[in-house]
From TrEMBL:
Residues 1-78 form the DNA replication/recombination mediator RecO N-terminal domain. Keywords: DNA damage, DNA recombination, DNA repair. The gene is recO. It holds the Pfam family RecO_N. SUPFAM superfamilies: ArfGap/RecO-like zinc finger, Nucleic acid-binding proteins. It comes from Paenibacillus oryzisoli. The lineage of its organism: Bacteria, Bacillati, Bacillota, Bacilli, Bacillales. This is DNA repair protein RecO. GO terms for biological process: DNA recombination; double-strand break repair. Belongs to the RecO family.
Amino acid sequence: MLHSVQGIVIRSMDYGEGNKIIRLFTPELGKVGVMARGAKKLKSKHGAVTQLFTYGDFVFFKQRGQMGSLNGAEIIEAHHALREDLHKSAYASYLAEMTDRMLGDEEGNNYIFEQLKAGLMAIEENKDMEIVTHFYEMKMFDLAGYLPITDACVACGETTGITAFGPNMGGTLCSRCRFKDPSAIVIGEGAQKLLRLFPKMDMRRLGTVQVKAETKTQLKRCMRAYMDVHIGVQWKSRGFIEQMEKYNI
């Protein structure tokens, strides 16, 4: 069957001497594996469109249960800046990896597609990469059915006096319940507000956000700990980000 769709390249790998296999994320078909024959060759018309993060129009033939074969493609947004900058590439790769590993094959999702598209553009436009990442992580938690409780104490339901985030308990905790999660992370008012905002806000509406360094540190600890407890995936791209942080690259 011939498909004509818009998609984002969330994975690209060499195959054989001259071919590439790409994984597209599309709003209608979800994740789709497509063979791009000859894409590695110097003069290939498919060389540019098969690069990671590329957003474009793709035409491919695919039979049920088989890999697709790329017939034609046209770039809508090349995202050169995401591949040319080490930090942007690392954070954009994390968004792509989450999409690849947390969505099932051929599981269409227009909303997540738009969030990924907006997230990649936000990183390219120099918006805060860490905040963009946390927004997208929260979308992934929601998709997986593990959205944390952030508008009240997860233990007692109290909406005031929130002082911590409990990864094991599954959300924010008030001062009286904080002891119930030994792994609880102390958070300030800024982190509380953003944790409440992340599940509700559309990435496409994200403007320029200025967040204090202390708040960003708290958010990072909360989101990474929650991801490790409830999703339990060893993220290659996040590991690279953590190495850059460790060595202050």
